[in-house]
Amino acid sequence: MIPVPGFEGRRVAVFGLGRSGITAARALQAGGAIPVLWDDGVSGRMQAEAEGFVVEDLTRADWSGFAALVLSPGAPLTHPRPHWTVERAHEAGVPVIGDVELFARALAALPQGQRPRVVAITGTNGKSTTTALIGWVLKQAGLTVHIGGNIGIGVLALPKPTADAVYVIEVSSYQLDLTTGFAPDVAILTNVSPDHLDRHGGMEGYVAAKRRIFQAQDDEALALVGVDEEWGRKIALDLRAQGRKVETVVSLPSPLGEEGGLQSKTDEGDVSPAAFPADEAQSYLASPSSEPLRGPPSPPRGEGYAAAAGVLTAGGEVLAALTAARSLPGRHNAQNAAFAYATARALGVPHEAAVEGLLTFPGLSHRMEAVGRLGAVRFINDSKATNADAARQALASYPSVFWIAGGRAKDGGIDDLRDLFPRVNKAYLIGEAADAFSVTLADTPHVVAHTMERAVELAAVDAAEAGGEQVVLLSPACASFDQFPDFEVRGEAFRAAVLALGARPEPAA
Question: What is the distance between the alpha carbons of residues 43 and 65, in angstroms, rounded to a whole number?
Fold first, then answer.
């Protein structure tokens, strides 16, 4: 646990007693504060009481006596309307902060020579994989690494800071909205696409929340920005105009194509480097190198990285041939690898060690995870794809798929994926979105399967009858909350259904 100083002997309101809330209360108490806890749910309050915390109905509390409100990221700060605790805090002039801000204040209170380094990752998609990949690469290079935040362990539950440590923290837009002094040494924005718009009042508010990851960085800190989308390009240009240290990452079609066939560099329109100023993104070579470790010891500072399905390049030089990394399929994962490589190099990891870490990464559960094989049919679990943009990355990674999709749809459904429907041999629709998706897929073979088990059974039969190497892909493009508590449970249901058919588990990458 990381004790949080600065509130010694003062009452701090803590609302929302999930993982981040109860951990924040423990960290505040360890730092000398008097946390006062409340939750709308009885179970959270009971846990807090069992641990000896002060539990007080905040609707009746005297807010003038609070030094701060630590708000759960699950409670709305501004939209669709501020949570009632936020309104009470504002009326009393009490600052509203979150667990990531407490983490930042704990580190800022340390003497300069005792502060660890911090890498923070946000983005609409890819942030969990990038976080885990960076942590893996740094650990393989021999660094002391602590990974947490919006992934795995709450940030304040990580080990106490030491000067040699590196904290690799995933942060959501909700968490960033509750920060003012969070200043990572390396801050990463993987990409931006519409998501959580109801919580941020629209796209402008969502982008502003993501951009907050860079707000408190000093001139020596590094900003790594994905520039596939207009929002990322604008942020990168604005930061560079401010004199900030910025490196960019653009994902491109592989020189050999996603599955090895030739593709043009300009097939992707405004994603190509030509759509971005020449000094902002570097083009890749005509073909990948056969030598995975070929390339300069470090790309020149200020130049960008280009990532394709098979290679990672900077300044026109191949840094790594990623085709050997079975856990990193698709060009979106090459982009994740570019972020990890750039971070490792910024933290002093040698080129060879950084590339070795990339090539040995075992992958993450529920993120393009190969869970089993039945004859020539492979089953891929991408349950983490909770929106259409995330599903796009998976669909684009295979020339053809038997696609399981559906759940609780996000705004726009799967309309934006129409250009990839020719890759779908057949779709198997589940959950609340099944009927709506059936309309969108009117010209694509599909069936409304309703349940995960039925979808897997039907897809397995059809894929086997198609002959040759085939892929059954779960990439729902939807939230899971209609049928499952979260995407992890959904992914495990897929895995169980696959193994129930007699598929043999895939070996680790």
Answer: 26
